[in-house]
Structures are given as structure tokens and as C-alpha cells.
Write a structure and sequence with these properties.
By secondary structure, the protein is α+β, with helices and mostly antiparallel strands. It is built from 3 helices and 7 strands; from the N terminus they run βααββαββββ. This is 3-phenylpropionate dioxygenase subunit beta. GO terms for molecular function: dioxygenase activity. Belongs to the bacterial ring-hydroxylating dioxygenase beta subunit family.
């Protein structure tokens, strides 16, 4: 997959129908449950072959600095992955050498403020959401991640597949020992 220089936002500003909004809201809730349950086989089925999963690193900048830290895919990112790279990350869990996951981390994803808009492409929808992700490992290791997501979901038969996700953390510095979580 060739990574574009920018993260496209093909929104039209037109809200989706209540039925479509409900269906996509249930889809992002189902995705969160799969991640909480570590059902990565089911989660990967929700990902499109042409997936772009992007979480840029954000620097504290003055307002007058107009550098596009969010949409520029050439800047530092915690994730800038396609489907194969996501599968590679997940395959590490099966090796027995993923020290950060033995014992397993416990996750809770809370998704809220879901909005659905039509895009310029028929059958693709832009979904905005906020998240709170809590993770706990061993007795005392706790992390909370908070932010926003902008997704593109595509109709795939009777379901939807995630085509693009841009994750914007509200943290300037991650204090976590690792980043073994999908948001």
C-alpha cells in the first residue's frame, strides 16, 4: 500500500439517516467489545484490505504555527499502518515473546459522541467519535488514553469495514511503558 501524503477527509457535511447512524454506531460499539475481549480474529474481519490506521504524534505548538500535525502522514506517528502491518502486530501475541502481554492486559474501550456523515463515495461513511481507553496490567500498571477518532467505514455486504482511522490523542506525551492497544 502506498501511503498518501495527507489523510483525506471526504466529508460532505450531510448527516446520515437515523437508521444508518444507528447501524454504524452499533458497529463501532461491536468493534470496541471485540478489542476488549481480545477477539482479534473478529476485529481483523472488520478491517478493509486498503486500511489506513493512523495515530500521529502531536507536539505542543503556538496557535500561529500552522503546521498540519494531524493530517500529514509523513510526520511522526505512533501508528501509520495498513492491514498487513496490523496483522503483523497481532501475530506477535501468538509467539510467546510479547513480554508486554504476559500476563495479559485488561482493556475497556468507551466510545461516545458518535456522528455519521455521508461522503463523496457511495457506500462509504465518515464516522466521528470520542474514546476513553483504560488498560490495566499486573497489580499496579494503569493507563488511560483519551481522544477523538475520524473513521471511514465502507458497506461490505450486510456489514461495514473500517477503511481509514485517524486517532488524535489528547496526550502530548505518552507515559505508558508500551503502546499495545488499538483504539
Amino acid at each position: 500500500m502506498t501511503k498518501n501524503a495527507t489523510f483525506e477527509r471526504p466529508q460532505t457535511g450531510q448527516s446520515a439517516s437515523l437508521e444508518l447512524t444507528h447501524a454504524l454506531t452499533q458497529t463501532v460499539y461491536r468493534e470496541a467489545r471485540m478489542l476488549d475481549d481480545e477477539n482479534y480474529v473478529g476485529w481483523v474481519k472488520m478491517l478493509a484490505d486498503d486500511l489506513l490506521y493512523h495515530m500521529p504524534g502531536i507536539e505542543t505548538r503556538y496557535r500561529r504555527d500552522k503546521t498540519d500535525q494531524v493530517n500529514d502522514l509523513t510526520r511522526m506517528a505512533y501508528y501509520n499502518d495498513n492491514l498487513e502491518e496490523i496483522k503483523k502486530r497481532l501475530s506477535r501475541l501468538e509467539t510467546g515473546t510479547a513480554w508486554s502481554e504476559d500476563p495479559a492486559t485488561r482493556y475497556t474501550h468507551i466510545i461516545t459522541n458518535v456522528e455519521v456523515e455521508m461522503t463523496e463515495k457511495e457506500g462509504e461513511y465518515q464516522v466521528f467519535s470520542n474514546f476513553y481507553a483504560y488498560r490495566n496490567r499486573n497489580e499496579r500498571e494503569e493507563d488511560s488514553l483519551i481522544g477523538n477518532r475520524v473513521d471511514i467505514w465502507r458497506e461490505a455486504g450486510a456489514a461495514f469495514q473500517l477503511v481509514k482511522r485517524r486517532i488524535i490523542l489528547k496526550h502530548n506525551v505518552l507515559l505508558s511503558k508500551n503502546l499495545n492497544i488499538f483504539l
